[in-house]
């Protein structure tokens, strides 16, 4: 690229996706509106050159440090490293094919290790370079789902001179930024004094020359917000509704309609809405907790609905009894809910300890909250010690949140006037749906935080067999079943092709002359999900033969032995398999049997409700949940070969976790560096995990032990962290916690991380289409950003339970929960250079 065009590189990058589109000239004129025609012509010719097809082979062998592998595209074999492949694919998505621009983007890129310290001047001292090297930017901007403005009318970018008259009749010159029928944004000198609620009169001086508009016409406004920026301040104004000015309404409405393509509609709120929804649509199919919505009728709390996805459905399955009836309601009795909600909001959480007992082919559930156990220390030791020795032992983290019915509806960011389809989407839920939800007051998110290390501490507690009978006070009687909870799965484009039904039955699989025992978790006509009692050693797409000894007892029509299935998915622990039935002229017994079984027993089999009893209920519950997020969610993007934090969402503040995230972070950002400075096998956790797992695989979960001392000025001294499995013994883990308490604070975090799939653009389509009407290039850029998100994770503070496992006193646990005050510091490159 010539030096004449280097300063316009940002314009060229934005216009790359538009080069083959009919709207290219319009997009060019918008992006380069401030440039001369000759400059615009040069940019156009450069883009045409970059878009020419290319057949040149790219061979980076011996030129870069990364591992080179063969990469084929359109019949041409290239030799690239991972960073170059990422750039190649991204540029192909921009240009639509392999072009000169793709070639130049790949071959002109620097070494894949493109970090800040590689680019610093050699005169900078080594100590400063090392500090900068260690401060890799792991700060992510904080976002809030659903926190965007809806416009009730279109707003147009338009700059014109105005005069502002205050209530003291002082005239102040100003300029508009954008304008709508009922609102206005203006910029005015910083020295002028305004406050929220000020009433102003505006005269549009700049309109009188070009348009037949009365310069003496004053339009009343009120100040809604004030933003200070550089040497000016920007005021957002709203029309005073009780003083109509019909002539101005008519004029401005016609003016916007006739000029919005010329001056561009202001789409800032829509761009923000798409960005937040982009993260939300990655979050919904991958969150690990199960939201349970609670209603209150006549001062009686009870669970009513649950919102399921593929990552949390194991919780529903765990609470199913021998008749496949869901008994999750046992966990949410009125007394338990009321005790938690009577505490301060910052303490609306608990740990629930559960195990079940099988007697006479019936499943009996036993559960107790942490507070219930603390009330009786002797029973606490017995319950935890006995329960942790059972295979059915589970520890659940439960966090509550308040909700309101107004949150059930989130309109689009664009006004009804855009199209009939938009108007339909902006319409509030129907009365029938609202009536179904009107008693909901709270919801709780229940998350399974059990792992092998959660057993180890409690298993050491001494128990006496003669006392075990006393545990019946924690048992849930089968003759008083809990209220039924209706589970809904929010409609997501990537949901299963057919309904799966919960069915636990013994199975046997035969592979490599080895017989493996297990149980089915759920079934469909063409698929099966099973849990084995041992390790599965073969790869995906291998064939297995499955037998159903218990189901065989109920049918003589089908031979349910050695049915052929293909392994389509394997859990990280290699004990849970997703199977697909082989269906041909010879092997079709499985499909025929399960088709008949499901048809004849639909009333008895439990399935997720794909077809909603009340249309829109899944969307309503989703809207409530995302606006009251109780867990900390973070999102990872791919940048070359690196995995970088892209955003963090956390509506409900956890003081201890918030303090950690704020350390060494600028206002409005969170610091996730601790996830990158702890790893397994000398590799950081984020990169290693995301390279290993596949999209829509169950999240990888780890318990992270952190010693936090915010009095230290640098991360290395302030944050020391290790995963639970990196300790050699139970004793080492306790010693780490003890040291953390002496020097600052111990924070235990359950970390979940999963790989995201392809983006659900249907969820964003109305707003993307709207942007495409006025700025197609921006819509293309948004879609590019969507594809760059590759990972999603969650952080849950489980410090109290971990300390309890290691038998710290309740006084020590409460003292550790108190937030440590520290000054939030930011490390600027300029400060380092001045050191």
UniProtKB/TrEMBL annotation:
Residues 150-242, 494-551 form the PilZ domain. It comes from the Bacteria. InterPro entries: PilZ_domain. It holds the Pfam family PilZ. This is PilZ domain-containing protein. It comes from Fluctibacter corallii.
